[in-house]
Design a protein that fits this description.
single chain; about 270 residues; globular
């Protein structure tokens, strides 16, 4: 039935959309969220959020940490992921690429999957010269615009679409200082000019990263491979070598996708 003629249907769709917003937000912080900060981030009234969390809790897709009382993803989220894994197992598909990247460069290699306006760290490998701190954990969810891998994805999209995705990230970005936002703008401008993601000291001092997009058979960026290292290891001729190595591994993943490997399902509609 047309939702314009069915207010209840419209309200139901809005509730479902809000519920998924809550679930995506919960997945972005492994330590969980307090009710107040979750409401503020999602732009929901406390009473509305509480009702959503109660309903999701009854289905065990949301839980409360017994020690911190923070809201976290529940066991059903894990169970659904296990069921979906054979169809979307990027971790298995990218394992050899990450192994080779870490072995060849000696640095930390990441595989990030695009999730609408965000990336999710699917897997990582540490080489013999890893960064000792500030490492992105597997499962971490962040806006595309705050990482070299995400910037590589944005650089492959039309400017208007990339800007719309930035707007979707506004709740996350609103916590940043003006200086941090200037650094993000420079990251995106530099990456679009180069055709790959390149963050040199822009986000974290003396830490740099470079990333390249992985395209699906339709030519849409769906993932990214990246390398993070201390800045002295990602400059000059070595930077060009690392970019070439990343591009080679990205092409291998694209061939797997073209052959119908797990993970080759079409990207969600924008």
């Amino acid at each position: 039935m047309n939702n314009l003629k069915n207010p209840a249907g419209t309200a139901g769709a809005q509730l479902l959309q809000r519920s998924f917003l809550v679930l995506r937000t919960l997945s972005s912080r492994q330590g969980g969220w307090r009710l107040g900060e979750l409401a503020q981030y999602c732009g929901l009234h406390h009473s509305t959020l509480h009702r959503i969390l109660a309903a999701l809790g009854r289905e065990e897709i949301v839980a409360r940490d017994p020690h911190t009382h923070h809201y976290i993803l529940g066991r059903l989220a894990y169970e659904l992921g296990v069921a979906a894994q054979p169809r979307y197992d990027w971790r298995a598909m990218g394992a050899q690429a990450l192994d080779r990247l870490a072995r060849h460069t000696g640095d930390t290699a990441f595989l990030n999957l695009r999730s609408r306006h965000e990336t999710v760290c699917i897997d990582r490998r540490e080489g013999h010269y890893p960064i000792k701190a500030l490492t992105v954990e597997v499962g971490a969810r962040r806006p595309l615009c705050v990482s070299a891998g995400g910037a590589a994805i944005l650089a492959c999209l039309p400017a208007g679409q990339a800007q719309a995705l930035m707007e979707d990230s506004r709740p996350y970005l609103s916590r940043f200082s003006a200086g941090r936002m200037d650094a993000i703008v420079r990251l995106l401008e530099t990456s679009r000019r180069l055709g790959y993601g390149y963050n040199r000291d822009m986000i974290v001092p003396r830490v740099s990263a470079v990333g390249v997009a992985v395209m699906d058979p339709a030519g849409t960026p769906v993932a990214a491979l990246s390398i993070a290292a201390i800045s002295s290891r990602l400059s000059g001729a070595r930077l060009r070598e690392v970019v070439d190595t990343l591009r080679g591994e990205a092409r291998e993943l694209e061939l797997h996708l073209a052959d119908g490997a797990p993970g080759a399902a079409p990207a969600p509609a924008e």
